[in-house]
Amino acid sequence: MAVPVLFIALFVMLLIGVPVGFAIGGATMLSMFMYSDLNMAINAQYCYSGIFSFTVMAIPFFMLAGLIMSTGGIAKRIVDFASALISFVSGAIGCVTIIACMFFGALSGSGMATTSAIGGMMIPEMKRKGYDPAYAATIVCFGGIIGPIIPPSLSFVLYGASTGVSISQLFLAGVLPGVLMGLLFLGTNIVICTIKGVDLKQKRSNETDEKVPIGEAMKYRFSEIAKSMKEGFWALLSPVIILGGIYSGVFTPTEAACISVVYSIIISLYVYKDLTWAGLKNVFLDTAVLNGITSFLLGYSTVFSTFMTYERVPQTITEFLTSVSTNPLIVLLFVNLILLAVGLFLDTVPAIIVMAPMLMPTVQVLGIDPIHFGVLMTVNLALGLCTPPYGCNLFVGAAVAKIKMESMFAHILPLFIVGLIGLLVVTYVPWLSLVFTN
């Protein structure tokens, strides 16, 4: 009876608007008090143990680095570089937005941070190019979900901390799936813009109706890329330092997060000089608030998952899924459906902390590689950032674009379908996730 009461209480609390952290904690304590003989003091103990971790320390530092980059000029240089790469296609501004999200995701590791930072710069530009504001916000939101997939990723940090899987290996595994999702959204934007006649390919101001020799066109393109690369050198060097240090074994993901903070502060204050000391103080305050929310969620999500283990929910799920089929391909389809449903109501932080330990026994029984499963789960729950009613990226995108979230719903479907296609490829082509880890 404890488990049904737990989920009913959780659903009711979420339905009436109780914040997610309080809903998870309240439902857990209610069920624990009514239907178990556990000492209620373990709530505090597991909340503490859930956040008292060297690995989990990476989360606030990556958050801080992301906010510094979005306000200190680093994000702007990334957008300029992305523009030089792909400004010649139809739907160019939308494509620039997605590529900028991919680059920024390799710095911040957060979907909402990516949506906020890139959306603040690109949504006004897309509006000026004739994009529907709702579509402009939607494309930024879907570009933002690449943040939790391309390393370094906060989702991988959480998954690794919850399951004991190597975070460095997860980072390596996320490279190709993240690029795949970005390319899929890129192609979809070009098709949509071509069909709607928005932001079509235009000649440069110094071009005539005569065809430009391919050599001259390539020379111009490379000169633009070289110029933006020179101006954004220090911004583009950041992921090289962070990821290179992790993969080479020079420092751990948590140490990499700290280094990214120091590097971002130095570049933003003394090289680009777009960040002031007063601005840095505000960034620290914003990060403290955001980390407080995340830590509260993380703490009570740990209690929730521990109580689930006590009630043998992971074993029950394993028995159910293996009774449906012992074929890993079919089981993974059911797991994806479960995770997509979870993503409708939970953010990636509590969803990973709750679901990863619950599903890991099933993964082990069926012989599925836990690294591949971590990438699958991350991609799946990242899509949940763009699905109502609890799509965090949608809230951020609507706020930045100053529109109602409901106006975005018509534009979500085609991008979501493309995202599902990407998810199926990641699910059933393990090579994409494991090629760099073997």
Describe the structure.
The chain has helices at residues 2-15, 20-35, 42-51, 58-71, 74-86, 92-108, 111-128, 133-144, 154-163, 167-173, 175-196, 214-231, 233-247, 253-271, 277-310, 313-324, 328-343, 348-365, 370-383, 392-401, 409-428, 431-434. The longest helix has 34 residues, at 277-310. The protein starts with a helix and ends with a helix. By secondary structure, it is an all-alpha fold. Helix 8 packs across helix 20 (392-401) and helix 19 (370-383) packs antiparallel against helix 21. Residues 203-209 have low confidence and may be disordered.
Can you write the helix and strand succession as a string?
Answer: HHHHHHHHHHHHHHHHHHHHHH
**DSSP summary, beta strand count:** 0
* Low-confidence spans: 203-209
Q: How large is the share of residues in beta strands?
A: under 5%
Over the alpha carbons, how many angstroms does the gyration radius reach?
22 Å
Nearest-integer average pLDDT: 84
Main beta-sheet annotation: none
Structural class: mainly alpha
Q: So how many helices?
A: 22
Helix content: over 70%
Bulk shape: globular
| Terminal-residue CA separation | 44 Å
